[in-house]
DNA sequence: AGCACGCCGACT
DNA sequence: GTCGGCGTGCTC
């Protein structure tokens, strides 16, 4: 008899089942759980002696489930993520294995005997219709022997079905049915584009380095327009010819239209594109194709890192500095971390032979402005740095100009207005960026000073003029704006902090003949929307594209010669140690939109902080210099990449409860840690303090901030896990979230 | 203190 | 769905 540790679908616990059959780790099976058949995943095989519970309670596994198993390397990855991010099997497996692949359960009716027609008629409906129905029922059942209850109910009255059950004409059995019917659409023969990609010397050198190096992790640092994509495609293509697959990760599928079109052109039906909009059926098909090795290239956002690609060779994380690579709910993993772990896990498992080198997975992190944490690893030699310094087709870098907003009361400085007019006159295009949607950030009453705030969150409501609503960006709360102050009834509500909607209005007033398009998450709700706007702008159906940071990235328009940053300070003021790094990235990325074609580009940055080092280093295009300055501060304060951070958020609907319990939990953790690591400024636990966003969705939030030397972090995480777990068991009203290596500090 | 009752979470 | 643990509130 074998004993197995089993994860049961949609259940938080791990249970022991037994079987005479041998099951593999990662295989799915059917088990009886609370009188229901459920899918179970084999996590481990255990020895009888190690079982904690009463062995007589242990049930038998019913049978193997007829679904594809999770490959061994992904099972190891699941276990690692659960451990590293202080998560649980339930959340991690949900993230890794698409729900669409699961089994369904339906009740089946099994033929037992015929209805005795006369018997049925006594005291019942004896019309012609019902006699016919009885006959039909009998014939039906006799022929099919078994049929789902759902089908029966569709074809017969509920009365007759009920009667059939009562008189044991049919018996009911719960049957497991496979939800993963794959349509037998034949995969077409591979038709890889044979179009030759011409690489310049620098690109060719980069390709050769990545191919031939003994290293497994690479940082491809290349300024915008230096042609990283060609390098990716070249590597994927070459490895594909030898039967290897690749995973290509992008920050957000809907915003990377160009990249995806490009890869589809190159690889046609070898490509599976994974994204959240796929239907269940599509997800099943794609997963199965990938698992069976019929599709070898996967493109997708974050979760595509879990694609069961066969003979995986390259994992490419494009725009590796992007925040969207960090999942903001449990499991709070960072895809970069997971990608590297996946590569190492698999590489370590390889059989040592002469082909081992060619089978090793390589991870390529690509960016024009690498996150400082990645760049630090490259400096340390943990990651091999591959640099591209020439702009593709020798396009020049744009010219910068900084405008001090202290000198003007307007949203547009004279200089920026002048530059926009000139651009329009030359029949060229401009991109204007403001990292704030809505019409205004907040409203403030001139008479009493009241600021309308979300009732669920401690956040001022944003004002949207187009539908005259006040909206909360955190919980989605919306309310009609009636032009008066709720507190004092005054009509003088001042708009503070202009958003894209307002800028659009001003712009239309200033340049009445210009064709303007606004792009932010409010105006672009679907991928189709985005693609249309993108193509229309490219075809010069618009003169000015105005938008939030979503237009700062990756767009390639050769006729854009002016980029204007309306206000560079918005991110800079966030309570986040990465705020200035993020600002540097945004400004650099944005300026890369200018001058991608033959014409020279120009960038105008409007800011209240012209003297800030970030702005200075941006206009000097001095990544290295800014990195060095920032590292001095990080080192001094022991922030990543030096120290490690964990944030614990304790929330409750009752304000006092959240506060008190957060303090209690903190004390408990401090007590435990105190015996293991001496607390200093570098090994630090904050008080339980109000989160920067104190209230979200009706829950009051307190957080505890942990900052520790790297070598202590394992011990610390263990203690946090233990204490928080114990605490959560007794404190049901509290919600505790643990964020390891947080990106969002609010 | 002892017991009935009802709520809620666990169920291998 | 059903069992048991726990908190509450009533009674001795």
UniProtKB/TrEMBL annotation:
<comment type="function">
    <text>Initiates the restart of stalled replication forks, which reloads the replicative helicase on sites other than the origin of replication. Recognizes and binds to abandoned replication forks and remodels them to uncover a helicase loading site. Promotes assembly of the primosome at these replication forks.</text>
</comment>
<dbReference type="InterPro" id="IPR041236">
    <property type="entry name" value="PriA_C"/>
</dbReference>
<dbReference type="GO" id="GO:0016887">
    <property type="term" value="F:ATP hydrolysis activity"/>
</dbReference>
<feature type="binding site">
    <location>
        <position position="448"/>
    </location>
    <ligand>
        <name>Zn(2+) 1</name>
    </ligand>
</feature>
<dbReference type="InterPro" id="IPR042115">
    <property type="entry name" value="PriA_3primeBD_sf"/>
</dbReference>
<keyword id="KW-0378">Hydrolase</keyword>
<feature type="binding site">
    <location>
        <position position="445"/>
    </location>
    <ligand>
        <name>Zn(2+) 1</name>
    </ligand>
</feature>
<keyword id="KW-0238">DNA-binding</keyword>
<dbReference type="InterPro" id="IPR040498">
    <property type="entry name" value="PriA_CRR"/>
</dbReference>
<keyword id="KW-0862">Zinc</keyword>
<dbReference type="InterPro" id="IPR014001">
    <property type="entry name" value="Helicase_ATP-bd"/>
</dbReference>
<dbReference type="GO" id="GO:0043138">
    <property type="term" value="F:3'-5' DNA helicase activity"/>
</dbReference>
<dbReference type="GO" id="GO:0008270">
    <property type="term" value="F:zinc ion binding"/>
</dbReference>
<dbReference type="InterPro" id="IPR005259">
    <property type="entry name" value="PriA"/>
</dbReference>
<feature type="binding site">
    <location>
        <position position="485"/>
    </location>
    <ligand>
        <name>Zn(2+) 1</name>
    </ligand>
</feature>
<feature type="domain" description="Helicase C-terminal">
    <location>
        <begin position="469"/>
        <end position="634"/>
    </location>
</feature>
<keyword id="KW-0639">Primosome</keyword>
<comment type="subunit">
    <text>Component of the replication restart primosome.</text>
</comment>
<dbReference type="InterPro" id="IPR001650">
    <property type="entry name" value="Helicase_C-like"/>
</dbReference>
<dbReference type="Pfam" id="PF18074">
    <property type="entry name" value="PriA_C"/>
</dbReference>
<keyword id="KW-0235">DNA replication</keyword>
<keyword id="KW-0347">Helicase</keyword>
<dbReference type="Pfam" id="PF17764">
    <property type="entry name" value="PriA_3primeBD"/>
</dbReference>
<dbReference type="InterPro" id="IPR011545">
    <property type="entry name" value="DEAD/DEAH_box_helicase_dom"/>
</dbReference>
<dbReference type="InterPro" id="IPR027417">
    <property type="entry name" value="P-loop_NTPase"/>
</dbReference>
<dbReference type="Pfam" id="PF18319">
    <property type="entry name" value="Zn_ribbon_PriA"/>
</dbReference>
<dbReference type="GO" id="GO:1990077">
    <property type="term" value="C:primosome complex"/>
</dbReference>
<keyword id="KW-0067">ATP-binding</keyword>
<dbReference type="GO" id="GO:0006310">
    <property type="term" value="P:DNA recombination"/>
</dbReference>
<feature type="binding site">
    <location>
        <position position="475"/>
    </location>
    <ligand>
        <name>Zn(2+) 2</name>
    </ligand>
</feature>
<dbReference type="GO" id="GO:0003677">
    <property type="term" value="F:DNA binding"/>
</dbReference>
<keyword id="KW-0547">Nucleotide-binding</keyword>
<dbReference type="GO" id="GO:0006270">
    <property type="term" value="P:DNA replication initiation"/>
</dbReference>
<feature type="binding site">
    <location>
        <position position="488"/>
    </location>
    <ligand>
        <name>Zn(2+) 1</name>
    </ligand>
</feature>
<dbReference type="InterPro" id="IPR041222">
    <property type="entry name" value="PriA_3primeBD"/>
</dbReference>
<dbReference type="Pfam" id="PF00271">
    <property type="entry name" value="Helicase_C"/>
</dbReference>
<comment type="similarity">
    <text>Belongs to the helicase family. PriA subfamily.</text>
</comment>
<feature type="binding site">
    <location>
        <position position="457"/>
    </location>
    <ligand>
        <name>Zn(2+) 2</name>
    </ligand>
</feature>
<feature type="binding site">
    <location>
        <position position="472"/>
    </location>
    <ligand>
        <name>Zn(2+) 2</name>
    </ligand>
</feature>
<dbReference type="GO" id="GO:0006269">
    <property type="term" value="P:DNA replication, synthesis of primer"/>
</dbReference>
<feature type="domain" description="Helicase ATP-binding">
    <location>
        <begin position="209"/>
        <end position="388"/>
    </location>
</feature>
<dbReference type="GO" id="GO:0005524">
    <property type="term" value="F:ATP binding"/>
</dbReference>
């Amino acid at each position: 008899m074998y004993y197995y540790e089993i994860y049961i679908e949609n259940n938080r616990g791990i249970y022991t089942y037994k079987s005479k059959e041998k099951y593999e780790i990662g295989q799915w099976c059917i088990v009886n759980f609370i009188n229901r058949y459920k899918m179970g995943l084999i996590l481990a095989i255990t020895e009888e002696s190690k079982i904690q519970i009463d062995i007589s309670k242990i049930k038998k596994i019913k049978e193997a489930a007829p679904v594809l198993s999770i490959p061994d390397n992904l099972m190891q990855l699941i276990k690692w993520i659960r451990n590293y991010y202080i998560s649980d099997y339930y959340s991690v497996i949900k993230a890794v294995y698409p729900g669409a692949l699961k089994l369904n359960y339906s009740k089946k009716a099994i033929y037992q005997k015929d209805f005795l027609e006369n018997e049925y008629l006594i005291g019942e409906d004896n019309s012609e219709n019902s006699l016919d129905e009885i006959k039909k029922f009998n014939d039906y059942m006799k022929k099919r022997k078994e049929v789902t209850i759902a089908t029966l109910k569709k074809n017969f009255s509920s009365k007759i079905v009920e009667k059939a059950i009562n008189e044991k004409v049919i018996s009911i059995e719960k049957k497991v049915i496979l939800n993963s019917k794959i349509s037998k659409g034949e995969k077409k023969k591979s038709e890889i584009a044979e179009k030759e990609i011409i690489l310049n010397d620098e690109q060719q050198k980069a390709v050769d380095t990545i191919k031939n190096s003994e290293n497994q992790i690479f940082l491809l640092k290349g300024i915008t327009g230096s042609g990283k994509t060609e390098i990716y495609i070249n590597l994927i293509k070459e490895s594909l010819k030898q039967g290897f697959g690749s995973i290509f990760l992008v920050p957000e599928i809907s915003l990377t239209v160009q990249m995806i079109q490009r890869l589809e052109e190159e690889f046609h039906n070898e490509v599976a594109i994974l994204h959240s909009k796929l239907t269940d059926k599509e997800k099943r098909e794609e997963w199965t194709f990938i698992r069976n090795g019929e599709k070898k290239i996967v493109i997708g956002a974050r979760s595509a890192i879990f694609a069961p690609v066969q003979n995986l060779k390259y994992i490419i994380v494009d725009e590796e500095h992007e925040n969207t690579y960090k999942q903001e709910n449990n499991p709070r993993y960072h895809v970069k971390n997971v990608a590297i772990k996946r590569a190492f896990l698999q590489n370590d498992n390889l059989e040592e032979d002469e082909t081992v080198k060619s089978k090793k997975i390589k991870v390529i992190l690509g960016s024009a402005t690498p996150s400082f944490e990645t760049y630090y690893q490259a400096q340390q030699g943990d990651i091999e740095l591959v640099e591209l310094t020439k702009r593709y087709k020798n396009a020049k870098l744009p010219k910068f100009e900084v405008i001090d907003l202290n000198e003007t009361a307007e949203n547009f400085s004279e200089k920026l207005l002048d530059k926009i007019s000139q651009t329009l006159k030359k029949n060229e295009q401009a991109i204007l960026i403001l990292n704030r949607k809505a019409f205004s950030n907040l409203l403030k009453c001139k008479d009493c000073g009241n600021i309308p705030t979300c009732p669920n969150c401690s956040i001022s409501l944003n004002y949207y003029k187009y539908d005259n609503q006040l909206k909360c960006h955190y919980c989605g709360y919306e309310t009609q704006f009636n032009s008066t102050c709720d507190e004092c009834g005054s009509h003088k509500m001042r708009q503070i902090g202009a958003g894209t909607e307002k800028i659009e209005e001003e712009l239309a007033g200033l340049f009445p003949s210009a064709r303007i398009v606004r792009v932010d998450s409010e105006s672009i709700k679907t991928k189709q929307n985005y693609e249309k706007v993108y193509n229309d702008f490219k075809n010069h159906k618009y003169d000015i594209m105005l938008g939030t940071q979503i237009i700062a990235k990756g767009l390639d328009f050769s006729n854009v010669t002016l980029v204007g940053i309306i206000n560079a300070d918005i991110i800079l003021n966030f309570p986040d140690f990465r705020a200035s790094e993020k600002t540097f990235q945004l400004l650099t990325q944005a300026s890369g939109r200018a001058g991608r074609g033959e014409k020279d580009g120009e960038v105008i940055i409007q800011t209240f902080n012209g003297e800030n080092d970030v702005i200075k280093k941006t206009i000097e295009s001095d990544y290295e210099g800014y990195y060095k300055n920032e590292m001095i501060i990080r080192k001094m304060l022991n922030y990543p990449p030096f120290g490690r951070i964990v944030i614990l958020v304790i929330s409750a609907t009752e304000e006092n409860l959240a506060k008190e319990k957060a303090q209690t939990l903190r004390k408990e953790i401090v007590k435990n840690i105190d015996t293991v690591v001496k607390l200093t400024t570098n090994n630090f636990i904050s008080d339980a303090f109000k989160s920067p966003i104190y209230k979200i969705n009706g829950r009051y939030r307190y957080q505890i901030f942990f900052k520790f030397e790297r070598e202590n972090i394992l011990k610390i995480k263990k203690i946090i896990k233990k204490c928080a777990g114990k605490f959560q068991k007794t404190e049901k009203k509290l919600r505790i979230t643990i964020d390891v290596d947080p990106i969002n500090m609010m």
